[in-house]
Design a protein that fits this description.
The chain is mostly helical. It has one domain. Helices cover 70% and strands 0% of the residues. It has 6 helices and no strands. Helix 4 packs antiparallel against helix 6. The longest helix is centred in the C-terminal third of the chain and has 22 residues.
Length: 162
């Protein structure tokens, strides 16, 4: 219980910092992480049987968070969202490990899922700090790419080479 309270406090501090001082990607990820933590609390099984089988509700929340982080990573003018998405991908893979081997000890499964939250929260705080450094150094820090899709503007035709 004390670990959960500690994690919630660290997440709250990191998310508040990102929401107040971060750019668009930092704020988006802070909201995604907070929503995922709240959804996980609602989605997990009752205490006596928690983590004995694949936690389908938690898997759905983790998969949704992965997709949200992937969307941020594809649009952000930053590298750190790729790392954040990879960390969440490892957490999602933890569900696969339990599905493949149902004999995984429940506490090991729970730790496998919960562990990745700590580096993710630390990464969010570090990313927000770096955003502030770039603002101080350059006066601006672009948040989003214009488009990750190919350009729809036609290219001029090449002149004939007769």
């Amino acid at each position: 219980m004390l670990r959960m309270v500690f994690f919630f406090l660290v997440l709250a501090a990191s998310a508040a910092y990102a929401l107040r001082k971060g750019g668009g990607p930092e704020r988006a990820v802070a909201l995604l992480l907070m929503a995922a933590v709240l959804a996980t609390l609602l989605a997990q099984a009752a205490r006596p049987v928690r983590f004995h089988d694949v936690e389908m509700g938690v898997l759905l929340v983790d998969a949704a968070l992965f997709l949200g982080l992937l969307a941020v990573a594809l649009r952000a003018e930053r590298y750190w969202p790729l790392w954040m998405t990879a960390l969440q991908g490892v957490a999602v893979a933890g569900h696969g490990a339990k599905a493949v081997n149902p004999h995984v000890i429940p506490w090991a499964y729970a730790v496998l899922l919960a562990f990745w939250g700590y580096p993710m929260v630390a990464l969010l705080a570090a990313a927000t700090w770096r955003h502030q450094q770039r603002l101080r150094k350059f006066g601006k820090d672009g948040s989003w790419t214009r488009s990750w899709l190919p350009s729809r503007t036609p290219t001029p035709a090449a002149a004939p080479t007769d």
